[in-house]
Design goal:
Blueprint: H1 3-18, H2 23-38, H3 41-50, H4 57-73, H5 80-96, H6 102-118, H7 125-133, H8 140-153, H9 163-173, H10 178-190, H11 196-212, H12 217-220, H13 225-239
Helix pairs in contact: 1-2, 1-3, 3-4, 4-6, 5-6, 6-8, 7-8, 8-11, 10-11, 10-13, 11-13
Length: 240
């Protein structure tokens, strides 16, 4: 069956779920979608759906959720070149989805974080994502979302990794990047054209890394991060 035909079947099955068909039809559609999500074809079909702007947002959100589940549960299906190609594709989807909706952005960021945790060939997720998203004020929120969920995905007990690889990866992606993260958050708060929602995401990101133990209050006491964050929040309150 062609990828195009599989995409068509996914769309049809989701339409049955969303349009209030009979209980029997809904059950059949749900069963088919569950089998589809476990199939090898779900990799390429989900990627194709996410790249199809003409498809409804519900369909693309389902594809993003499916892709994330595949990355967590079936990462071993991918060889290194395939995993890197998927990473590039999801980065493109995230850039195209930068205007929302938020659930789609969150699922794509989680997918990238789950790839980063497991894909040793992705040498510098922090630097790559910063380079791709920091220069565009419309995309900074996507970068902050990715960085916020990254330490959380290291605690995802559905991702099973050898202990030594896990420790090495956590050191490379988190511990060795904590100082860079603080500087990045300060830089974001200093951008005059930063969107209001990004101010909130700065705090969410900071809280996530603080909770993970990778950042301590001692590390930020000699920076302007806290002062800038409170100033940003006050400016938002004053504008309401």
């Amino acid at each position: 069956m062609s990828n195009q035909e599989i995409v068509r079947q996914v769309v049809n099955a989701l339409n049955v779920l969303y349009q209030g068909a009979s209980l029997t039809e809904v059950a059949q559609a749900n069963s088919w979608l569950e089998l589809y999500q476990k199939s090898a074809e779900a990799w390429t079909a989900s990627d194709a759906i996410l790249g199809s702007a003409e498809l409804g947002i519900e369909v693309r959100q389902f594809a993003a959720q499916t892709l994330r589940n595949k990355i967590i549960n079936n990462f071993s299906d991918l060889d290194e070149p395939g995993a890197l190609q998927l990473r590039d594709s999801v980065v493109t989807h995230l850039r195209n989805a930068r205007s929302g909706p938020q659930p789609l952005i969150t699922h794509l960021c989680l997918s990238l974080a789950d790839l980063a945790v497991q894909l040793g060939a992705w040498k510098d997720p922090f630097g790559d994502m910063t380079g791709s998203f920091l220069s565009d004020p419309e995309s900074v929120s996507c970068l902050l979302e990715f960085l916020a969920v990254l330490p959380e995905e290291f605690e995802n007990d559905r991702i099973l990794l050898p202990t030594e690889f896990f420790r090495q990866r956590a050191a490379e992606l988190l511990t060795q990047r904590a100082g860079d993260l603080i500087r990045l958050l300060v830089q974001c708060l200093q951008q005059p054209d930063l969107k209001a929602d990004a101010h909130t995401k700065v705090l969410v990101c900071f809280k996530s890394w603080l909770r993970s133990g990778e950042i301590t209050l001692t590390m930020v006491q000699n920076t302007s991060l806290i002062e800038l964050a409170f100033a940003a929040l006050k400016a938002e309150d004053d504008s309401v």
